[in-house]
Amino acid sequence: MYSHHYPLLLVDGYNIIGAWCSLKNTRDRHGLEQARRELVEALINYTAHKGYKTQVVFDSQYQKSPCSLEHHSSHLSIYFTAWTQTADTYIEKVCASFFHGKTAAPPRLIVATSDRDQQLTVVGYGAEWMSAQVLSSDIQTSFSQVKRKQRNSQRSQGRFLFNCLDAKSQERLARWRQG
């Protein structure tokens, strides 16, 4: 399910969608599918930047289907619970196995939800808790840091004329330099 080298971030998908105004608006205007897609897009780069393995957990919405796991990147997957299971029960099960030190447990387990009962349960199992608002602001901070880093590396490359040339001109100049 997860690599034990990285912290595991479990995201209570529908809880976060209901807590973020932007996702709530998307859900109300364009449906749950679009809101899920936007949440996953927000989490993909964040997850890679933070070095987390992230699993977004969604209830099956009471459709009679088995559980399923979809991999969206090497760091992010989506888990749809089986129709008899809620996201809460799945998250609690993962927390319980973390607490009991089952094999391949991550070094840290973080659960993102604004559900008060869920917060108490996960903390009771020794996992870390993150509210929907904290997750949102952490994603914004992470996005800003990545942008700043990209701007700085572009600026440092831009100081040399060679880096401003197209590939063909760079090749000609390199050959000219070598004689």
Q: Would you summarize the structure shown here?
A:
The chain has eight helices and six strands. With 179 residues, it is an alpha/beta fold. It has one domain.
Q: What does this 3D model show about the protein?
A:
With 179 residues, the protein is α/β, with parallel strands linked by helices. It has one domain. The protein has eight helices and six strands. The chain has helices at residues 13-19, 21-30, 32-50, 87-99, 116-124, 132-158, 161-164, 167-178, and strands at residues 8-12, 53-58, 68-71, 76-80, 109-112, 128-130. Strand 5, helix 5 (116-124) and strand 6 (128-130) form a beta-alpha-beta unit. The longest helix has 27 residues, at 132-158. The protein is elongated and about 70 Å long. The model has no long low-confidence stretch (mean pLDDT 85).
Shape: elongated
The helix/strand series, from N terminus to C terminus, equals EHHHEEEHEHEHHH
Portion in strands:
15-25%
Percent range for helical residues? 55-70%
Radius of gyration, in angstroms, nearest whole number: 21 Å
Instruction: Report the mean per-residue pLDDT as an integer.
Output: 85
The N- and C-terminal alpha carbons lie at a distance of 56 Å
Strand segment tally: 6
pLDDT below 50 for ≥5 consecutive residues: which ranges? none
**Count of spatially separate domains:** 1
Task: Sketch the major β-sheet.
Answer: 6 strands, mixed
Topology, please?
Layout: E1 8-12, H1 13-19, H2 21-30, H3 32-50, E2 53-58, E3 68-71, E4 76-80, H4 87-99, E5 109-112, H5 116-124, E6 128-130, H6 132-158, H7 161-164, H8 167-178
Parallel strand pairs: 1-2, 1-5, 2-4, 5-6
Antiparallel strand pairs: 3-4
Helix pairs in contact: 1-2, 2-3, 3-6
